[in-house]
Amino acid sequence: MNNKQRKTLERLFADPISGNIKWSDIESLLVTLGAAITEGNGSRIRVVLGDVPVVFHRPHPESTAGKLLVKAVRKFLKDVGVEDA
């Protein structure tokens, strides 16, 4: 994990929840953690990390994840055993 990905992980677990994290940085972090990402319909992507699948919607037209999406990613990471760095 590089420094940028480590900072993204820290921002995902920061309180208060940030509503301004680049989605591309989140996807990069997920891939680094070993997630398989497949495209779905529209803005949907399916992420599988370990044995845990989840579907997220890429933010659009903005390129940043809002608070609800950040909260969902945080929950997913906790579910697969990834904790704050």
Structural class: alpha+beta
Q: What's the structural domain tally?
A: 1
- Strand share of the residues? 15-25%
Share of helical residues: 25-40%
Stretches with pLDDT under 50, minimum 5 residues = none
In the CATH scheme, the class would be: Alpha Beta
CATH architecture, please?
2-Layer Sandwich
What is the average per-residue confidence, as pLDDT, rounded to a whole number?
Answer: 94
The major sheet is characterized as: 3 strands, antiparallel
Q: What separation lies between the terminal Cα atoms?
A: 11 Å
How many β-strand runs? Answer: 5
What sort of overall outline do the alpha carbons produce when their principal axes are compared? globular
Oligomer class:
single chain
Strand line-up across the major sheet: 2-3-4
Number of helices: 3
* Radius of gyration from the alpha-carbon trace, in angstroms: 12 Å
The arrangement of helices and strands along the chain is HEHEEEEH
CATH topology: Double Stranded RNA Binding Domain
Please provide a written account of the structure:
The protein is an alpha+beta fold and about 80 residues long. It has a single domain (about 5-80), classed as Double Stranded RNA Binding Domain (2-Layer Sandwich), CATH 3.30.160. The chain has 3 helices and 5 strands, in the order αβαββββα. The strands form 2 sheets. It has a 3-stranded antiparallel sheet, with helices on one face. α1 (about 5-10) packs across α2. It is globular and about 30 Å long. The model has no long low-confidence stretch (mean pLDDT about 95).
